[in-house]
Amino acid sequence: MSANQNIGLLTNRSKVVSVKKMTFMERIYFPAIIKGFGITFSHLFKKKVTIQYPEVKRPIAEIYRGKHVLKRDDEGRERCTACGLCALACPAEAITMVAAERKPDEMHLYREEKYASVYEINNLRCIFCGLCEEACPKEAIFLTNTIVPSNYERSDFIYGKDVLVEPVDHRVDVSKRQTPEVLNFKKDKNQSHNI
């Protein structure tokens, strides 16, 4: 017995192949062509779903997870303390940071004694899951509903603090991303977190 015959005996499987002769109409594919044209013509009279982007844009949900922002407090100081919890929570390992100590003349720039001198997010690796904003104890990082713009260079997708930190004169509203409980907690000035 050959090896192929042994395999057939071991599996006990046999395939029955039918050799059904095609009719003349099936051989020239005429019914299939008519059916295909019928589907095509039925779509001509349906409502178009195409959006003429960028002239017309689809509405985006208020809780859409898009471009990241590093928030400032009410006095304009950066909230981030470079604790690294956002980087630990990131499943794609897209966040890198370097911590530094605040100097006495930088008290108006940074909220805590420690701050992130370098903070980078690689948007090519980021999966926009929102775990970084959930992990942040200082509410320093949020995902906005702004779509990350496309670029031609890979280096343009690595956002540093120059892109991530919100400008002092143009604050980014993230109140839609916060629960009512968190918003009420933030109003309580007796909590050291809100001072």
Give your account of this protein's structure:
This protein is an alpha+beta fold. The chain has a domain at 68-194: Alpha-Beta Plaits. Helices cover 26% and strands 12% of the residues. It has a 3-stranded antiparallel beta sheet with strand order 2-3-5. It is elongated, with a radius of gyration of 29 Å. The relative contact order is 0.14. The mean pLDDT is 85.
Offer a quick outline of the entry.
This protein has 195 residues and is of the alpha+beta class. Helix content is 26%, strand content 12%.
The percentage helix is 25-40%
Q: Helix count, per DSSP?
A: 7
What best-fitting shape do the alpha-carbon axes yield? Answer: elongated
Give the mean pLDDT: 85
- Supply Rg: 29 Å
Side-by-side strand order of the widest sheet: 2-3-5
The CATH architecture of the domain at 68-194 would be 2-Layer Sandwich
Classify the beta-strand content into a percent band: 5-15%
The computed structural class is: alpha+beta
Instruction: Provide the low-confidence segments as ranges.
Output: none
CATH topology of the domain at 68-194: Alpha-Beta Plaits
Distance between the termini: 86 Å
Number of strands: 5
- Level-1 CATH class name of the domain at 68-194: Alpha Beta
Give a quick account of the main beta sheet: strands, pairing sense, barrel closure. 3 strands, antiparallel
Assembly state here?
Answer: single chain
Q: Strand-and-helix sequence, N→C? A: HHHEHEEHEEHH
Keywords:
Alpha-Beta Plaits, 195 residues, 7 helices, three-stranded antiparallel β-sheet, 26% helix, two-stranded antiparallel ribbon
